[in-house]
Amino acid sequence: MEAISKARSDENDEQICVVRTPNFSNIARDYGCSSNEENTASDASYTSWIKRHPSALSMFDRMMTPAKGKRVVFLDYDGTLSPIVEDPSCAFMSDSMRSVVPEVARYFPTAIISGRSRDKVQYF
Which domain of life is it from (predicted)? Predict the structure, then answer.
């Protein structure tokens, strides 16, 4: 099984680790769950999707270089910055939370993590 993992140690020797899960169509092929034609189509579809939606893991070193030696804050949008709600389109940050995030970012490199598309969270 193929996986990509990157790990770094911060100034306190704490491990920072990012793992990319493998392409599931390759796993299915390894276990004989689909034909070669299906895998080829699936792999082509995956490649096309990755070109349109690149993974941050491919830019891991470039993103982490400015943060070297610093503590970095990663905040999840759903459930941390905004409440969990039945309809995700109704998940909004409170005004107080919206004012706190820039304050935190003044002192620490800060990233907002989300499974949503960039368009959905860019102007939250």
Answer: Eukaryota
Tell me whether residue 82 is exposed, middle or buried, using C-beta atoms within 10 angstroms of its C-beta: 0 to 12, 13 to 18, 19 or more: buried
Give Cα 62 to chain centroid, integer Å: 15
CA distance 62 to 101: 23
Residues 32, 71 contacting (CB under 8 angstroms):
no
Going from N- to C-terminal start, the domains of the chain cover 1-55, 72-124
Cβ-count burial 36-59 (b if 16+ within 10 Å, e if not): eeebeebeeeeeeeeeeeeeeeee
* 99 vs 59: CA distance, rounded Å: 29
3-state SS assignment for residue 108: coil
> In this predicted structure, what is the pLDDT of residue 24?
46
Residue 42 CA, chain-centre distance (Å), reads 22
Per-run averaged pLDDT (10 residues), the chain, 124 residues: 44 53 48 53 77 75 82 88 86 89 91 79 67
